[in-house]
Amino acid sequence: MARRRSKRPYGAGHIPLDVSRLASVPRTQIGPGGAEFTVRRVRGGDKTYTCPGCHRPIAPGTAHVVAWSNESLFGPDRGLEERRHWHTSCWERGLWRG
C-alpha cells in the first residue's frame, strides 16, 4: 500500500489559520477560592445550564465557558466531573468573588 503524502503540493496556496479554533483550547486560570481551574470556551450545545455566577440560565446554543478545578481533593477526574458552565461575562468578571 502506498503511503499518503501529508504535505501540501509546492505552489499551492497557504491555508490561513482559523483563529476561532484557538478559543476552545483549555487554559489554566485562577478561579473560585483562588484555586487553579481549567477553563475552556465552548460554542454552546443543546442543553440549558445554570450559571453559578448569576444563577441565570445559559440558553442552548449560547457560547459560554466550562471550568473545573485542577485542585480537587479526590483527584483531577473528580474535578472534571464537577465542572460548571458559566456565562463568559460572569467568569471574566469573577462573580465567584461575591
Give a short synopsis of this structure:
With 98 residues, this protein is α+β, with helices and mostly antiparallel strands. It has one domain (24-97).
What do these coordinates show?
It is a single chain. The chain is of the alpha+beta class and 98 residues long. The chain has one domain. It has two helices and six strands. Strand 3 and strand 4 form a beta hairpin. The longest helix is centred in the last third of the chain and has 6 residues. The mean pLDDT is 81.
Strand content: 15-25%
Question: How large, in whole angstroms, is the Cα Rg?
Answer: 18 Å
Count of distinct structural domains: 1
Structural class: alpha+beta
Order of helices and strands: EEEEEHEH
Q: Which outline best applies?
A: elongated
Largest sheet, spatial ordering of strands: 1-2-5-6
Roughly how much helix do the residues carry, as a percent range?
Answer: 10-25%
Stretches where pLDDT is under 50 for at least 5 consecutive residues are none
What's the number of helices? 2
- Main sheet properties: 4 strands, antiparallel
Average pLDDT figure = 81
Would you report the number of β strands? Answer: 6
Span of the ends, CA to CA: 62 Å
